[in-house]
Amino acid sequence: MYEGERRPGRAGSCRSKALSCASATAGRLRLSPGSPALQGTCRAWGRLCSASTEKSTKAQSKGTVVLAYSGGLDTSCILVWLKEQGYDVVAYLANIGQKEDFEAARKKALALGAKKVYIEDISREFVEEFIWPAVQANALYEDRYLLGTALARPCIARKLVEIAQREGAQYVAHGATGKGNDQVRFELTCYALCPKIKVVAPWRLPEFYQRFPGRRELMDYAKKHGIPVPVTPQTPWSMDENLMHISYEAGILENPKNQAPPGLYTKTCDPANSPDTPDVLEIKFERGVPVKVTNTGDGATRSSALELFVYLNDIAGKHGVGRIDIVENRFVGMKSRGIYETPAGTILYHAHLDIEAFTMDREVRKIKQGLSLKFSELVYNGFWHSPECEFLRECIGRSQESVVGTVRLSVFKGQVYILGRESPGSLYNEELVSMNVQGDYEPADATGFININSLRLKEYHRLQSKVTVKQDE
Questions:
Q1: Whole-angstrom Cα distance, residue 66 to residue 116?
Q2: What CA–CA distance (Å, rounded) separates 217 from 1?
Q3: Cβ distance 316 to 350 under 8 Å?
Q4: Cα 77 from chain centroid (whole Å)
Q5: CA angle, corner 290, sides to 284 and 296, nearest 5?
Q6: What's the rounded mean pLDDT across residues 220-246?
Q7: What is the pLDDT of residue 437?
Q8: Residue in 361, 324, 354 with CA at minimum distance from that of residue 138
């Protein structure tokens, strides 16, 4: 219902009955309008009216909805709007490594009418259950995007469904727009994990997006309903942050020729202003997963998944590593411009790629590269919980059994430089490949190898020559 709208209901009917009754009573008993008896009669009808109205309001409640809440303007307005529509709102805020005043967000949600607020720290499971499989896969969408947002969404949505089930809620809601990928990622996860769940997506409902066509209308609504609005000037773009990365899009960035302004980046420093001395790291892998990082300069080590990832974020960010500015293809069919900072993910991508090439059979790796391409596409499009994506994760995990070893690398001026690697399971044979030692290899055998492989080429070009001669005649 829009602001200012009024619907006839039990309360209006009750008021009419109270006035009629009061009038009739005054007439029968010949009471003056100000008499105590008449006032008492009116108060009694008033109490009946209030009780009836309260009962009616409860009867019209649509049930409980669990809202994926960020604490920002959009989801704060959505929280109040959902209450207007008759929902009891439970707010859920995921701590997935973003910089956020979670306690302030809790108080804000409660003040806006949420009946309960969940703040769930899912950072560790995000690393271990979502980022690590992507590292094993060398996941990269359209050759450049490391999937920071796409990996976070199913992790957040999984907990959203869990809370809905805990609360006995029939509905979940989110603030994703109707043009983006996140609506798909959230909802495919929800439907996969709880097929009977119902999703309220306000930005796809005409009664919502027609009422709030722009930020100004949201701001007006917020002021009218006492929703705190930002007091600092808004950046002319939108941001989304998690432990793995931060993304920037929309606003002035929608014009793809506009260069990102210098003040945009928050996770990484400008490579030109980064330290003049590199950090040299040794990253140890087991089954394709990083298990330990050592800084050879100061001896610092990290071995737990979350601490290791946070440390790599710090080191990479200090040296300006992990920035990209791309135009990508959204699943819904349009191209979009996105700017991303993925510090730790960039280091791990290069390190894992190196140790995998060092330890994996050539033909297995070719097949695995194809699987990785499909895996990246499925993750980007929101199919993390699909049977095909589960199958790919199993296959990729199996391929990583031999990916064991340590990579030594340098992080410097926006780049990651591989310095060396070692592994107890390497397929690299130094004697076999040496130019100084013949080893267990007979060079003369290469003649037959070349002859066999050239046969196909000779036949192809022989035919081409015949076709060319015939065309010339």
A1: 9
A2: 16
A3: no
A4: 21
A5: 45
A6: 86
A7: 78
A8: 354
Q: Nearest 5 degrees, angle CA 192-CA 167-CA 54?
A: 125
DSSP per-residue letters across 382-415:
T-TTSHHHHHHHHHHHHHGGG--EEEEEEEETTE
Alpha helices in 194-238 (DSSP H): 206-209, 215-224
pLDDT at 50 over 90: no
User: In the 8-state DSSP scheme, what is residue 345?
Assistant: H
Query: How would you class 7 by CB atoms within 10 Å of its CB: exposed for 0-12, middle for 13-18, buried for 19 or more?
Result: exposed
Amino acid at 37: A
207 contacts 84 by C-beta, under 8 angstroms? no
Phi-psi map region of 96: left, alpha, beta (phi>0 left; psi -120 to 50 alpha): alpha
pTM attached to this predicted model: 0.84
Task: Please give the single-letter amino acid code of residue 331.
Answer: F
Contact at 8 Å (CB) between 267 and 245? yes
Q: How far apart are the C-alpha atoms of 75 and 114, rounded to whole Å? A: 12
Collapsing DSSP to helix, strand or coil, 369 comes out as helix
For residue 208, give the nearest of 3, 6, 395 by alpha carbon. 3
| CA–CA separation, 114 and 91 (whole Å) | 6
pLDDT-derived band at 22 (thresholds 50, 70, 90) equals very low
pLDDT attached to residue 468: 75
- CA distances, 297 to each of 46, 107, 406 (Å): 78, 44, 17
**Of 472 and 299, more confident:** 299
What is the radius of gyration, based on Cα positions, of the chain? 32
Examine the pLDDT at 242 and tell me if it is beyond 70.
yes
Q: What is the DSSP letter of 210?
A: T
Q: Which two tokens stand for residue 293?
A: 């990082």
Query: Contact 384/263 with Cβ under 8 angstroms?
Result: no
Amino acid in position 247: S
Q: What is the mean pLDDT of the chain?
A: 88
Tokens of 403: 């990916």
Mind giving me the DSSP string for 31-74? --TT-HHHHHHHHHHHHHHHHHHHHHHHHT--EEEEEE--SSHH
Higher per-residue pLDDT: 196 or 435: 196
3-state secondary structure of 123: helix
Over the stretch 337-396, which tens digit does the pLDDT of each residue have? Answer: 999 999 999 999 999 999 999 999 999 999 999 999 999 999 999 999 999 999 999 999
Amino acid in position 396: I
Biggest CA–CA distance in the chain, Å, is 127
- Among residues 345, 348, 358, 335, the alpha carbon closest in space to that of 289 is found at 348
| Residues recognised as catalytic | 74, 153, 182, 238
Q: What is the mean pLDDT of residues 193-208?
A: 97
What is residue 232's predicted lDDT score, i.e. its pLDDT? Answer: 59
Round to whole Å and give the CA distance between 390 and 180.
Answer: 24
Cβ contact 400:347 at 8 Å: no
CA angle 381, 387, 388 (to 5 degrees): 60
Encoding tokens for residue 303?
Answer: 């071995």
